[in-house]
Design brief:
The chain is mainly beta and 154 residues long. It has helices spanning 6-16, 71-76; strands spanning 23-32, 40-47, 53-60, 85-86, 94-102, 111-118, 123-131, 141-142, 147-153. Strand 3, helix 2 and strand 4 (85-86) form a beta-alpha-beta unit. 31% of the residues are buried.
C-alpha cells in the first residue's frame, strides 16, 4: 500500500524545484584613489536596467547615520543592512566583496554600482558602475570620485 503523502510530496517537489534560483559567486573589487582625509563610506549594490536597486552587496562604514550620503543606494535600498556592513575604506585602500548573484541577472542589463562619501569631502552617487556582463567581466571601469577603478569578476 502506498503512503498517502507520496503524491503531495512529489507535487511539492515538482513545483518548488523550478523556482530555485541558480546563483553564481561574483567578486567586486574597488580600488580607491589616494584622496587623503577620513575613511570612505561606500555602498556596493546591483541595479536593474532601469537603475532600481535590487540587491545590496556590502556597505562599508559602520555608522548608519551617514548612509544617507550614499544617495544612489539609499534612495532605493530597503530593509536592514545587517551582516553586510564593514569598516570604512582608507585612502588608497581596496574593498573586495564576494556575493552570490542570480544567474538571471548576468548579461541582462544589470549593473554593479558603488556610491562613496567621505566626511568633510564629497558624495558620489554611482562613483563607478560596471555591467554584469560576460564581455566586461574582469575588466576595470574607472570611477569619477574616490573610486579609482571597479572590477567585477565571475
Amino acid at each position: 500500500m502506498r503512503p498517502y503523502y507520496t503524491l503531495p510530496l512529489g507535487l511539492v517537489a515538482a513545483i518548488a524545484l523550478p523556482t530555485l534560483a541558480i546563483a553564481k559567486p561574483v567578486t567586486v573589487t574597488a580600488q580607491f584613489a589616494d584622496y587623503g582625509g577620513y575613511g570612505a563610506y561606500a555602498a556596493v549594490y546591483v541595479t536593474d536596467a532601469q537603475g532600481k536597486v535590487v540587491q545590496t552587496l556590502h556597505v562599508a562604514g559602520k555608522k548608519a547615520k551617514y548612509y544617507r550620503h550614499l544617495s544612489g543606494w539609499a534612495r532605493g535600498a530597503s530593509g536592514s543592512v545587517d551582516g553586510l556592513t564593514g569598516a570604512s575604506i582608507g585612502s588608497g585602500g581596496t574593498l573586495t566583496v564576494t556575493a552570490d548573484i542570480a544567474d538571471a541577472m548576468l548579461d541582462a542589463g544589470y549593473q554593479v554600482r558603488i556610491d562613496t562619501s567621505v566626511e568633510d569631502g564629497n558624495d558620489y552617487a554611482a562613483d563607478a558602475a560596471a555591467p554584469l556582463a560576460a564581455a566586461s567581466a574582469g575588466k576595470p571601469v574607472a570611477g569619477h570620485g574616490y573610486v579609482q577603478s571597479l572590477t567585477v569578476s565571475y
